[in-house]
Amino acid sequence: MDENNLKQCIQLLITVISNTINILEQQTSQLNEKNILNNLQITITSLLDCNLSLLSSQYRNYLFNILNQYNYSIEEKMFTIEFTKEILRPFVHNLQGRLSLLDVCQASWNGDLSLVEDFIRKYPTLRNKCGLYGTTLLYSAARNNHFDLVKYLIETGNCSINVKNEDYSEKSEESKLKASTGSTPLHAACFYGHLQIVKYLIENGADYFILNNIDETPIQNGQCNKNIQKFFDDFLLFSYSKKLDKPPNKTILEEIKQNEEIIDCIWEYKPLSQDQWLPVSSELSIQLQQSLSIKSDEKFKTEIVLKKSTDIYYISIAQFLYSIINDNQTENFTWIRCRGSSLLNFHSYSQWQIMFIKYPMGITNNSTSIEIFDMTTNKIQLNSWYNSNIKINFLFERAMNYRQKYITINLNFINNEKIIFNLENFTFTNQQNTITGFLRWIPKIVLNNNNNKLTLVDNFQLPTDLDLTLFTVFYLNQVQLNETISTDEMNQYDLKYESVFDTKILNSQDQSDVIVICCLSKNLVESVLVAGGNSLRKLFKMKIKEISENSVVSVTTGGKLASKAIYFVLWKPSSDSNILCQSIRKLVSNVIEKAISENYKSIAFPAVGCGEYGCSIELIAETFIEEIHQQLIEYSMKILFVIQPDRINIYNEFQKQLNLFQQQQTSITKSISIIIQEGKIEIEQGDITKQNVDVIIGSSSSENLRQALIKAAGYQVEHAYNQAYEDNPSSLIISTPSGELPCKRIFFIKWKPNKDPEILQQSIIDLIWNVMQNVISCNYTSIAFPAIGCGKHACSVDIIVKTMIREMKKQMETRKLLCLVKFIIEPNQENVYDEFCKQLFSSDFHASMEFQLPATWQISKGYKIRLIVSKDTDEYKSIFKRFDEGMKREYKKIIKIERIQNARWFMQYMAHWTDFKKRFNKDTEKHLYHGCQEEVANLIIADCFNRSFAGIHGTMYGAGVYFSSNAAYSHQYTKPNLLEERCMFLARVLIGKTTIGNSSMKTRPLGFDSTTDGNHIFVTYHDAQAYAEYLITYKSK
């Protein structure tokens, strides 16, 4: 009864607010609008008075949880802030979502994936909200062992993995002892013994030391289940030098807050030339321990000297290295390390290092000199230390903080090899045991300055004349108190256990250096000033006097906000779409140029003007994304759009425009093809997971390929594959749905490589036959193959490729197949691509060449014919180099280079190119410039260089269309637009047979194809004799 009353009450609120929205849409008077909004608040208050008495406390509190977002006071029984027109639609959407959540929580409890998917799609901002009984969707799924649903909620639904349950019942002593309150999904999975979900949650960042309402960790919740208990016994590192039976119950950073002196470590040494660590004497261990256990008022010594009998020990505490000078005055170097946590034993942060002992093609270090490397080279020197980069160092520190026994990291600098690090023994290895080595940390050292600024020093290049100290937790707290450390830096040392190996790990919550604020939004400006405090408000008041149209006022936040600076801009909306688009482009370019000049790396833009002032959300989103892409061609910058959680329509529009743009900017692919009977074989360099065909082929022999396909396809395919494999592990083909891939089906083929040429060849023949047999039986007509066996199997690429192509040609000819077969080669496998091309055009079979569009052309959704060339491509660099050489004194910067993909005009041009090639038995094509104003450029792109443009640049050498090999010359015929931008074409021009022209020539002279000045100018007389290939937009000096 209570639940029905609650649903009825929420539905009444939805109806009342929706009716008011409809009334407001009819109004033009602001006075009437205000009265209507006031009446709405009165109506809602009255409605609540009538219905709240019908609800028990738990149901009332669920409703209050919604209303509190809109400033409803439970004590005063009224809204404390007046409504505005803008909040009504989000209010309705929120109410509809919370009404739906009542049923969806039960669906998640029952494992009903389809209902949960529909809810997340409609109400993504409510994915972490608790239902009526205080549990989240993810908690319910984890509690009841719905693994597929858990995966969906994390990987697709983006639910927060450590989100806690709430309690809507009245607060009482009994409710305080409710274990589910404050519990996370990991608490539930541990308590109910769901080991698969426990492992998955931890792999994806679940915190196993987080406390619930009765101060229990997930580890403690799992002690009642032997499987969970055993998992944590194997997973956690209890201690180094002590024997502990109970698992730890808090992180190291939490434990050291008690300020107790803890010694739990083992000191070891290793001579430079040896591959074994030995225990340090107890006397030396004490000395080393004391040298790092310094108090805040003690001076830190980077070196200590010990005398033992006739030997003298010079020990570097900074480098963990000591040298022994014996009575023969011979100096021997020895590395030392401390197996244990630097934070637990010394409250000090550390720099982690790795040393390779075994590595394929590793270089032996026979030198006695000390050399430390960074993780930037793949030429590995054995027996030498490599400093971890910032991210990997963070992962080591965090793993130690969370007392993990092992951590697996993919090391980019050695071909992304997966390395397993043993944090108990301080060793590492890869899965094949072909790479092994040692691990250690050295203490981080900082300048001990009075300002308590965080200035780290290089342990192997210590300054001799400055005061140094250990970088301890105490020192970090002082820096934080003095506000001399940024939020991003601080996040590095909090060592939070969130997303494992997340690329955003060092940028918690994806904060940006710069937040852009439009001064038109008074509420937003005020919110920022309140959050930033008095210092930010004073700076703003001082600098806002400087603001003018198109200017950007930069105000630093002084650490009060997550960003480093706020950019205040004066932007005005317009109902004129052209003016609106220009103003947005100007806003974006000004902000990015300002950020570049101030050395910032990331910017967060609001969705200015969306849904207000009569501006089109679609037009604003499209213009923002296009202009930002254009700017990113020139500048390296991370861009975020910040959209209010309740503005779902704006979020959806930006997502839609971004997806459309990304589809239009599909990466350039190299491809060639031939026709076989009624079918076609195509060789393409690209991504197998992006192929829009009926069937994509995978192979069980390549774990990387299988995982790549499953990851891109999603959990549905993974589940189907695992189920099929479990049912019939010897099956030749496992067929799964396509999941998120653009194909209809995925075939995973059972195939094993073999070094014997004959066996290998026959296995490929069998593979092709099996695939085509299944394709034919399913009536599929297009297939995409990866370059199976051409990776790390040490098989003959020549045999594999030759056999695949030959057998596929044979299948298509003998069966007269009407189908498309694509062989997709990874972009970095140039040799494999070349081999496929070679075999495709071998003389074994007769095939016809298919006419090809340029290899650089991209697939463009919506048939766009102007596509921006990415700055980091060879295509861009080649055009830029040539233009720069000819225009150094005439231009300031290139804004963008666009490729013109007008297929109709290109086909006509190629027909002429073929004719010219036959006539002259040589290629007479030149790449020439043509300068013009923007309006003319738009016409040329649509209709190419037709006769209407003849004579525009004069008739000195004939009344045709003029081109020049000299960019500076063509620059004279350009004109700036409103943004001071000019444009110039780089065109493909067929010169053919040319002669010196003059002003009397209205058409080409008989027997000639073009006229010239005899130097750099060429004039054409036929529409399809030139093709506008690229448009360069630039600013002149």
What does this structure look like?
Strand 26 (733-737) and strand 27 form a beta hairpin. This protein has 5 domains: 2-233, Serine Threonine Protein Phosphatase 5, Tetratricopeptide repeat, CATH 1.25.40; 266-477, no CATH class; 511-664, Leucine Aminopeptidase, subunit E, domain 1; 671-849, Leucine Aminopeptidase, subunit E, domain 1, CATH 3.40.220; 866-1036, Phosphoenolpyruvate Carboxykinase, domain 3, CATH 3.90.228.10. The strands form 8 sheets. Strands 26-27-25-28-29-24-23-30 form an 8-stranded mixed β-sheet, with helices on both faces. Helix content is 37%, strand content 20%. Residues 498-510, 663-669 and 843-851 have low confidence and may be disordered.
Summarize the structure.
The chain is an alpha+beta fold and 1037 residues long. The protein has 31 helices and 39 strands. Helices cover 37% and strands 20% of the residues.
